[in-house]
From TrEMBL:
This is Sodium-dependent transporter. CDD domains: SLC6sbd_Tyt1-Like. The chain crosses the membrane at residues 12-33, 53-71, 83-103, 123-147, 159-185, 210-239, 251-272, 292-309, 329-350. It comes from Blautia hominis. Pfam families: SNF (PF00209).
Length: 360
């Protein structure tokens, strides 16, 4: 489970840094003036080999610098200020996005359920997104867990994290999808939606240039908080396994991850036609992490906690020997041991035809 978590974080950062590079590019373009045709600018930018590599490297350097210097105090203190500011920015964008002409169709698309889409593949995609968003199966929760004090209320934190993660995702949906329909973009464009729709929204706002700069700076901080979690997992493994210094482990890990990630950065340009199993390097990395390694990591974690470490020992750790209340511990124990491994496995198998083919 530990080795898989390290591999997951390694691959995850390799393609996630591509998005981080995009955010940095949009900070600069927001300062100089948002493009009139955001879709054309995005296509031109992502197709430019030099720009893709440069901004990818800049994002990786920022990530490495933070991990080398230490992350606990700086990130924790900064999050208390910058994350609430990001939510405030998102709410302002929601108000403007939802009042655009034609935004109603986007709201309807977002909220009206289409039960024909509830396929096993959709459940796996949702499962992968939940795992990715909460850093489950990447080793980040284990690594960061080492920083927690004994008096930390883990059940309360877990509920709060899941709640606010979902809330921010809903806010982001209201910020982006109404604008997607208002400006005629495709709602199936994936990660690029934010970079195509929001500049168009800022262009329709008073003081949109300033607001765009602030927003993308805050998004960069959010992106870096995720990237350092990925890198910290790999670095911690290297430091403890190979007994090397933190700085050396950080630099070497980052170089290796970058070598794997450059093809992902070029997947939107000169290497867009190169595909493995019908997927570009970027899409393949995302698929391997979200649809394969994270669900498998989740199953292994359930098995380890429930059957190897034993849920009673986990309960003692979570409650600090009974000092912290965990009223649903009996339900949690049953879920960990019996329900979740089976549910995740069923979703995983039924959503991946190649697994079914192995048994035929």
């Amino acid at each position: 489970m530990g080795i898989l978590a390290v591999i997951t974080s390694f691959i995850g950062l390799s393609y996630y840094a591509v998005l981080g590079g995009w955010v940095i590019r949009y900070i600069f373009v927001s300062v100089t003036g948002l493009p009139k045709s955001s879709e054309a600018f995005f296509t031109s930018f992502t197709g430019n080999t030099g720009s893709q590599i440069i901004y990818y490297l800049v994002f990786m350097v920022i990530t490495v610098a933070i991990v080398v210097m230490g992350i606990q105090k700086g990130i924790e203190k900064s999050c208390k200020i910058m994350m609430p500011l990001l939510i405030v920015c998102l709410i302002v964008i929601v108000i403007r996005s939802c009042t655009l002409p034609g935004a109603g169709e986007g709201i309807k698309f977002f909220l009206k359920p289409d039960f024909s889409k509830l396929t096993p593949g959709a459940f796996l995609s949702a499962l992968g997104q939940v795992f990715f968003s909460l850093s489950l199966g990447t080793g980040a929760t284990i690594t960061y867990g080492a920083y927690l004090g004994k008096n930390q209320n883990i059940p309360k934190s877990a509920v709060s994290i899941a709640f606010f993660d979902t809330m921010v995702a809903m806010i982001a949906g209201f910020a982006i999808l109404p604008a997607v329909f208002a400006f005629g973009f495709s709602p199936t464009s994936g990660p690029s939606l934010m970079f195509q729709t929001l500049p168009a929204v800022f262009d329709e706002m008073t003081g949109g240039k300033i607001f765009g700069v602030v927003f993308f700076v805050l998004v960069l901080f959010a992106a870096v908080s995720t990237s350092i979690a990925f890198l910290e997992v790999v670095v911690s493994f290297a430091v403890n396994t190979f007994k090397v210094g933190r700085a050396k482990a950080s630099v070497i890990s980052a170089v290796l991850i970058t070598c794997l990630g450059i093809p992902c950065a070029l997947s939107f340009g000169i290497w867009s036609d190169i595909k493995i199993a019908g997927k570009t390097f970027f899409d393949l990395g995302d698929y391997l992490v979200s649809n394969v390694s994270l669900p498998i990591g989740g199953i292994l974690a359930c098995i380890f906690i429930g059957w190897v470490w034993k849920s009673k020992n986990a309960e003692k750790e979570v409650t600090n020997e009974g000092k912290i209340s965990f009223k649903l511990v009996s339900v949690w124990s049953v879920l960990i041991k019996f329900v979740l491994p089976v549910v995740i496995f069923i979703i995983f198998v039924t959503s991946n035809p190649w697994i079914m083919d192995l048994f035929q």
